[in-house]
Amino acid sequence: MVNKQTEFVKRIEKHQGILYKVSRMYMDFDQDQEDLRQEIIYQLWKSYEKFKGDSQFSSWMYRVAINTAITYFKKDKKRVDKDELSDRMDVKADEQAFEEESKLAHFYKAVKTLNKVEKALILLFIEGQSHKEIAANLGLTEVNTRVKLNRTKNKLKTLIKNQGYEF
User: Fold this and answer.
1) Closest C-alpha among 64, 74, 62 to residue 26
2) In Å, how far from its chain's centre is CA 24?
3) Mean pLDDT for the stretch of residues 112-118
4) First to last CA, the chain
5) Are residues 22 and 64 in the same domain?
6) In the chain, how many domains are there?
7) Three-state secondary structure readout of the chain
8) Which residue among 104, 110, 147, 166 has the highest number of C-beta atoms inside a 10 angstrom radius?
9) Which domain covers residue 76, as residue numbers?
10) 127-160: per-residue pLDDT in tens?
11) Of the residues 47, 82, 117, the one at which a domain ends
């Protein structure tokens, strides 16, 4: 049991970026993102025994994380006390860091308007997964994945431009 727990923790630590990316894609506020990350870790632990190693751990982790985020997001949408996404950004002394944060803010603001499949497509794409891997993770055909991904990228560009950000 201890070895299983240790192995699990090491794998989660190695791929913790997945937790942050998925939570930021689906939730607006820091506390909500943290709550979602905790829920994803809980779901990963609950289903860890089912991971047989047929795929890479990171691919399996994405699948669980995205499914958990979608379920969690549905629950969160039912809450009445949600505020609108704040346009505030922390000002950083370094102009380059500020510019990067500005780009990310525009990107994530646009991503939040996508539907759950589009969000998952973009997330897996920016992680460098192939069309074949994305198709397998989302239960789509490879051709359908290519088409949906191209449409989603174009939609995302339009959304970002409509926010007033120029590429």
Assistant:
1) 74
2) 6
3) 91
4) 51
5) yes
6) 2
7) CHHHHHHHHHHHHHCHHHHHHHHHHHCCCHHHHHHHHHHHHHHHHHCHHHCCCCCCHHHHHHHHHHHHHHHHHHHHHCCCCCCCCCCCCCCCCCHHHHHHHHHHHHHHHHHCCCCHHHHHHHHHHHCCCCHHHHHHHHCCCHHHHHHHHHHHHHHHHHHHHHCCCCC
8) 110
9) 1-82
10) 888 999 999 888 899 999 999 999 999 999 998 8
11) 82
Q: Which amino acid is at 91?
A: V
Q: Residue 101's Cα: distance from chain center in Å?
A: 17
Predicted structure pTM score = 0.60
Q: What is the mean pLDDT of the chain?
A: 83
Show Cβ contacts of residue 154 under 8 Å, excluding neighbours closer than 6 positions. none
* pLDDT, tens only, 36-66: 999 999 999 999 998 888 888 988 999 899 8
d(CA 111, CA 100): 16
Residue 48: name the closest of 1, 82, 84 by CA. Answer: 1
Report whether pLDDT(7) > 60: yes
CA contacts within 13 A on the Cβ side of 36: 30
Looking at 62, 82, 102, the residue that finishes a domain is: 82
Residues 42 and 99 occupy one common structural domain: no
Q: What is the CATH number for 104?
A: 1.10.10.10
Answer yes or no: do 76 and 96 share one domain: no
